[in-house]
Amino acid sequence: MMKEWATVISWQQGIALLRCEPHAGCGNCHARGGCGSDLLNKLGPESQHQLQVAIDQPLEPGQRVEVGISEGSLLRSAMLVYLTPLFGLIAGGALFQTIFVTEAMTAVGAVSGGIAGFLLARRLAAKVEDRADYQPIVLQIGLPPTALRIQQD
Question: N vs C: which end of the chain shows fewer Cβ within 10 Å?
Answer without folding.
Answer: C
